[in-house]
Amino acid sequence: MAEGRIIKAISGFYYVQSSGNVYQCRGRGIFRKQKITPFVGDFVEFEAPKPDEGYILAINPRQNKLIRPPVANIDQVILVSSADMPEFKPLLLDRFLVSIEAKKMKPVIFLTKQDLIGEIAQRNLLDYQTVYEQIGYFVELISGEEQEISDRLRSYLTERVSVMAGQSGVGKSSLLNSLNPSLQLATGDISMSLGRGKHITRHVELVEAGGGLVADTPGFSTLDFADIEADELRDCFPEIRHRQGECKFRSCLHNHEPQCAVKKAVENGDIASSRYEHYLRFLEEIYSRKPRY
After folding, report:
1. 102 within domain boundaries
2. Which of 13, 41, 44, 174 has the fewest beta carbons under 10 Å from its own?
3. Are 82 and 156 found together in one domain?
4. Does 183 or 211 have the greater pLDDT score?
5. Is residue 222 one of the residues assigned to a domain?
């Protein structure tokens, strides 16, 4: 029996890297019975009489995991959003951030294609950058210059396991290709009628880039909060979480309650109104979802 890490999952096969070699494995039947799915990034115990006839026997405890994309044991999420084509959507960015915060993971925000937008849109983008940096997030605004992309991204990736996530068409695969051209990851054009990219990446895979391992993942344009409860949502907004103890009521959800420190911070401009509006919208979505049985 040997130990290794799953670096790719596709069509029911798991590719396990161990001691410089990669073994094609299947999961044991007991995983299906127990409804356990091996994830890319999992550290596993396996046996492989031949390189293409391996079986995963056990999955070691995970440091963390994401469901969409399905990847485990990561150090950070490089969250890529574009300034144009597809257009920048702060609501979608906040959906991603809430999902990442709920998993206690570190996000880094990359806003790409800023060279494609006009002066007014650039000022708006700079305002959003200020909002997110004041919250405590790292934010990088980059244009289409390949060297700029490589240099600024590499500093975050070295000796880390990262996930690149974001809406389709924002340039995730292009960013990885700029760091490691030998990857030749497929990139897609933007649909002019839909304003979003085609889903080019079909599976999750850990690839070497920038001195670290990066999961190139399928793009997606919607997120729900099926696993987040109303009283958990407030902890997924750092600027709200930090003021939680200042409210009159411990159970304050910062909606209709009196003497709410969060609502006061919004009125004073200490919390961005756009973020608070998104919080209320997500809270309503959680209240409105169908109960699970």
Report:
1. yes
2. 13
3. yes
4. 211
5. no
Residue 38: pLDDT above 90? Answer: yes
Structure tokens at 83: 């300034």
Query: What is the C-alpha separation between 180 and 121, in angstroms, rounded?
Result: 31
* Domain end among 182, 216, 250: 216
Of residues 231 and 168, more confidently modeled: 231
Residues making up the binding site for GTP: 112-115, 166-174
Residues 150, 27 share a domain:
no
List Cβ<8 Å contacts ≥24 apart for 98-103.
Answer: 98/223, 98/225, 98/228, 98/233, 98/236, 98/237, 98/282, 99/66, 99/223, 99/225, 101/235, 101/236, 101/237, 101/238, 102/225, 102/227, 102/228, 102/232, 102/236, 103/64, 103/65, 103/66
CATH number at residue 109: 3.40.50.300
Same domain, 251 and 210: no
Residues contributing to the annotated binding site for Zn(2+): 247, 252, 254, 260
Neighbours of 148 (CB within 10 A): 13
Q: Is the pTM of this model over 0.85?
A: no
Task: Kindly state whether residues 157 and 20 are assigned to the same domain.
Answer: no
269 lies in some domain: yes
Cα(205)–Cα(27) distance, rounded to whole angstroms? 17
